[in-house]
């Protein structure tokens, strides 16, 4: 099992990760998958004293993560690093946020490569979750572009042997039974419902318990 005593797990991402994590009433973990993951670990493994740190910031692209990487990741010295980023890189092309902030697939991969290389050899495990867009119409431009970024991300992580979790595929499988609005916001198909957040936390826990 990857989990061990006094381990520090640092989770970084955008609004899907953030979810009010600066609020003391969410134990500074937010209301999303980092808090759900922490609750699962604390209840199942109370003697391990694992520390979960959420450094997600709403609206971030991979460029934004690189800009704050030193302070939020390298200075935090994670034993396990979890990264979920990329959907805003794509979404900026479709009217969400400043167009100047859009990130090409090439630059997205360059950014994630930097993230991996900066902690390889120091972190015990790097877990990278794919971005996801809960759209069932495979011909929608944003769906097509998101899939292109995920395909490139899969190739990148294979170079380094880090752990990759294909959340898009997981959600696509779930959407065969459940509607997208059971899993994500009806308005944007990007922000998960509590059900969707539980799915993300569960996938991370599976990796940690191997």
Give the helix/strand layout.
Layout: E1 8-13, H1 15-18, H2 33-44, E2 51-54, H3 62-67, H4 69-72, E3 80-84, H5 87-91, H6 105-119, E4 125-129, H7 141-160, E5 163-165, H8 167-174, H9 180-183, H10 194-208
Parallel strand pairs: 1-2, 1-3, 3-4, 4-5
Helix pairs in contact: 2-10, 6-7
Structure summarized in a few sentences:
This protein has 210 residues and is an alpha/beta fold. The chain has a single domain (8-203), classed as 3-Layer(aba) Sandwich (Rossmann fold).
Describe this structure in words.
This protein is α/β, with parallel strands linked by helices. It has ten helices and five strands. A five-stranded parallel sheet has the order 2-1-3-4-5, sandwiched between helices. Helix 2 crosses helix 10 (194-208) and helix 6 (105-119) packs parallel to helix 7. The chain is globular and about 50 Å long.
**Helices and strands: which structural class?**
alpha/beta
What's the mean pLDDT score? 95
Unreliable spans are: none
In sequence order, what are the helices and strands, one letter per element?
A: EHHEHHEHHEHEHHH
Q: Strand fraction band?
A: 5-15%
CATH superfamily assignment?
SGNH hydrolase
């Amino acid at each position: 099992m990857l989990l061990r005593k006094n381990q520090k797990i640092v989770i970084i991402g955008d609004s899907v990760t953030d979810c009010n994590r600066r609020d003391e009433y969410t134990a500074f973990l937010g209301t999303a998958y980092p808090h759900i993951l922490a609750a699962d670990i604390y209840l199942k493994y109370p003697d391990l004293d694992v520390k979960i740190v959420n450094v997600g910031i709403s609206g971030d692209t991979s460029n934004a993560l690189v800009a704050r990487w030193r302070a939020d990741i390298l200075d935090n010295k994670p034993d396990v690093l979890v990264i979920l980023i990329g959907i805003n890189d794509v979404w900026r092309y479709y009217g969400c946020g400043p167009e100047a902030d859009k990130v090409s697939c090439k630059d997205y991969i360059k950014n994630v490569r930097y993230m991996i290389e900066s902690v390889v050899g120091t972190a015990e495990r790097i877990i990278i979750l794919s971005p996801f867009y809960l759209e069932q119409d495979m011909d929608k431009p944003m769906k097509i572009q998101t899939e292109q970024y995920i395909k490139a991300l899969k190739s990148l992580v294979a170079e380094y042997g880090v752990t990759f979790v294909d959340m898009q595929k997981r959600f696509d499988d779930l959407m065969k039974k459940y509607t997208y609005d059971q899993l994500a916001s009806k308005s944007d198909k990007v922000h998960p419902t509590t059900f969707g957040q539980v799915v993300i936390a569960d996938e991370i826990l599976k990796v940690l318990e191997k």
